[in-house]
Every structure is written in C-alpha cells, then in structure tokens.
Protein: Pkinase-domain-containing protein
Organism: Suhomyces tanzawaensis NRRL Y-17324
Amino acid sequence: MSTGPPLFNVPNTKRSNPNKLPNLSIPVPPVDTNHNPHPQPRKLPPIDFLKVNGSYSFTPDTISPSAAGQVRPSPDGYGGLTPELKTPNMLLNPSDASLNKDIADLTPEDWNVIANTNQIMELSKLGEGNGGSVSKCVLKSNPKSKVFALKLINTDPNPNIQKQIIRELQYNRSCDSPNIVKYYGTFMVEKQSMIGIAMEYMGGRSLDAIYKRVIEIDPTNRINEKVLGKMALSVLNGLNYLHQQRIIHRDIKPSNILLDSQGNVKLCDFGVSGEVVNSLATTFVGTQYYMAPERIMGKPYTVTCDIWSLGLTMLEVATCKFPFQGTGSGGSDDLANLGPIELLSLILEYEPKLQDIPQEEIYWSDSFKNFISYCLKKNSDERPSPRQMLGHPWCVGQQSVQVRMDKFVKRLWGDLE
C-alpha cells in the first residue's frame, strides 16, 4: 500500500553561510540525570537542523465521528473585575472549611461562595481589553496562599446559558498536562452576571507580551531559534494532548500561549462549545486574524486549523510583527485600513513565509522555514496534525537542544515572585 509522498521535504544540505541567530541566546547546563541542583555548564555542539534521516509519510489524523459532539472550541475575551472583588475589608469566616484546602482542591461550591462573599483580593492587573480584564489575585483569608489568575467574562444574562458555560468550563479542571494551564474553578459572580475563571498564574506572560518586550529591549533583536523551538514543541504537545481528549482549541494565538516564571510554556482559553462562544464577549476581530483558510470558506474545524494558527503565531513571534502586516501599499497600516471582507480575502490569497533579513544579519534555518511552511499549507488536507508536526525534523532536532527557559524569562522581566 502506498504511503504517499514524504510528509516533510527538508533539503539534506548545509548552508555555506552560517546562520546568525538572534542574540537572546542563553548558555545552559547539560541535563543531569542524578538531579544535581548545580550541574557543571558545558558548551553545546552546533545543531544542524537540515540533516534528515528517513522519510515521513502522511497519514491524516482525524477525530472519530462518535467523538464529534465532544469537540470543545475556545472562548476569548476578558471581563473587568468588579468593585466587590476589589474591596479589601472582607475576610473569610475562620470556620469556613475552604480555609484548609489548597486552591486546586476547592470545589465549585467553594469558589461560588468565595466569589460572591468578597473573599478575593486583587494584587495587580495583568491585562485589559474591550471585554474586561484579568488580574493576579490571592484569597484574602490567606495572602500567603497560592497566587492565581482571575479572569472575568461578560456573558449572556440568560441563566440557562450561564449554567451551560460554567458546566462546560468545569471540564477544564480535568485536564492534566504540563503544557495546559491549570484551571482551579469556574463560577458565577451573580450581581454582575459575569463568569469567573480562576486559573494558574503564569508570571512569564504571553508570547504576545514577550516578543514586544524583546524589541522594546532592542528593536534589532529577535528571539533565538532555540527558544522558539521549545515554545513550538510545548504548544504541539499541548495540542496533541487536547486532541487525545477530543478537544480542538480553536483559538491559538500569541496571547493564549503563556509562560510561567520557570519558562514552562502552556496553552489557555479552550473548552466551550460554539454556541457558548457566541454568547461571550469575545474579540472576534482579533481572533479571525489567525483563522485557517478553510474556516473562512465555511468548512468545519479540524485539528489542522490549530496548526495553521500555530504557524501564524510562530511566524509572528519570530519576526516580531503580525504576518499580514505590510503586505500591501499601506505598509504597517494595512490592517487598520482593511475591512473584514478585505482581511479575509487577504488570508485566502497571501502566502506568509519566514524570511531572512540579511541587512540586519538575521538568518533562520531552512528546517525552521520548512516547519512554518507546513503549518501554513492552504490546503487543509496537506496540513499535518499536532502529532505529525512533532515528527517534523525541526521539532525532532529541537528536542535534543538544551535551553534555560527560566533565564530567558528572567532576561525579559527580571526576578519574578
């Protein structure tokens, strides 16, 4: 039986001109199998991402028809914190059983009481948008307890829809992957008709904030390809885990990929049905920038839609600008001048690619460029699944590269709490 053409066609050649990667490179110690907290650093050998051994055949990954009803897309948008949640003068009753629980062990009933009796204290604002905000918080009863992120979402006032949202978001608590943000609880803030989501605090911030910080430090700088490799691997592992759970993320973009203070990369914002997404206060215009071409043409979501969005995300983070920016005569103002129809047409017609910038001495490996090109296959039938992309030669090569992601985060943000 024919296995079809090779899945990843990466030239088995070396560049005569060595790549000059961006200068956010961090020397790292070797992996210590004895768990020595102070391993001796060593100089890493050069990695040739262009050496390819063997071939890769394409066998589409699909979700079985019986699982179609379990596919859960993602919401987007933040709600603003209410005055009640900000007021610092109301503490938990010492007899409350939730005082003795870890945040991860609080039940939905615990969270409902905590949220509606003003027992959450905001430490700082993490982000705001048209739909509201997300904040860094602790429980007032124990300020030394685990810090968490609190997102509040404006939603439909219909009680039945609110219950459906909470019920579906509660599923996120069952997800257990090092590449998925932990969800602690979902609840209704009754006075404001807002959905609250308590989740793992990610101090390293989003890829969106990270690449903007990189060019803030040095406009000629870019994130090192080794660091990008760890980011891509983590996202693919997270997507592969979700796929195994019969979940399609449906909202992969830089702002939904987060790093913690140790540099671990995790996905957030997934887990509700399409009907529920329509009832949330979402920033749809921002989301459609990352929409796969087949979705624009009205075809159903598949796991390869997430791969398209990952390709655009990695291209944006590598180049420090949105891939469709500056594709017309309007330069960097193109997106602002485009209407929804023009933007969707641009996504269908334009083919974004990762390119070197010789005048700035920025070069990327051919293998990384090939990785991006496979993510951005216009034909969804030719676009690999997350599991298949983990077998791409660039990903395979990145698995053996050691990167101190904690030092990368510290380089950007300094010491984090």
